[in-house]
Specification:
The chain is mainly α and 213 residues long. The chain has seven helices and two strands, in the order ββααααααα. The chain has a two-stranded antiparallel ribbon. α5 runs antiparallel to α6. The radius of gyration is 18 Å and the shape is globular. The chain starts with 6 loop residues before the first strand and ends in a 9-residue tail after the last helix.
């Protein structure tokens, strides 16, 4: 796996690693598939996590551990969308807005999780290069993936909040390709948010008896 951590090329003075490039390209593809509500978003997310896990394992234990959690959530998402396909009229998962209770639970879990993970990173400095923002991005990613697994439109809002910190953090720490990918994430998130928002509103509209669907 050492080859994954070798330099692929130099871009704007930044050294791009193969692991950074390949893993994030798969992550970008997974987000695009999620926008299209394709169940293949989850195997691609799992593969992205597996590549980055292999790249980090053995020398960046904290980063490898985070990818292991991402892979577990990807398996959960696959299971949820397999069950949810029966709910959508077009054979894909039906999307909806979360209830206020669900939003409160996710927000509380994100806040508590960020504090807990950041304190863990501070206690073991080798796990992270920047404990608080790193914890925020990690926990935010898990919350976003959970909301995606449940077909919630709030999934896109969670990704936007992750992007706001992820872009400057990756550039500041030398992960230029991750930074560029997060910028593209932002554009995809806006398109995906619009699509899921419109679908959820259309699904909520009552259909009159005898009227065409």
């Amino acid at each position: 796996m050492n080859s994954l951590n070798s330099e692929a090329f130099v871009l704007f003075g930044q050294h791009i690693l193969w692991s950074d490039m390949v893993g994030n390209l798969f992550g970008l593809a997974a987000l695009a598939l999620g926008w299209r509500r394709s169940i293949w978003t989850w195997p691609v997310q799992f593969l992205a996590g597996l590549i980055l896990f292999g790249a980090f394992f053995g020398h960046l234990t904290g980063s490898a551990g985070k990818q292991a959690v991402v892979m577990l959530v990807a398996l959960y998402g696959w299971w949820q969308w397999q069950r949810g396909k029966r709910e959508g009229d077009d054979g894909h998962i039906a999307v909806r807005f979360a209830t206020w209770r669900e939003r409160a639970v996710m927000a509380a879990a994100a806040a508590a999780g960020t504090v807990a993970v950041a304190l863990l990173f501070k206690a073991y400095p080798t796990l992270s290069w920047d404990p608080w923002p790193d914890a925020y991005i990690f926990v935010g990613t898990i919350v976003a993936m959970y909301a995606q697994a449940r077909g919630m439109v709030e999934f896109w809002f969670a990704w936007l909040l992750v992007d706001l910190v992820g872009v400057p953090l990756n550039f500041a720490n030398g992960y230029a390709f991750s930074g560029f990918v997060y910028v593209i994430y932002g554009a995809l998130v806006l398109w995906g948010l619009r699509d899921w928002w419109l679908r959820s509103r259309a699904a909520a509209q009552p259909t009159l008896e005898g009227a065409p669907a």
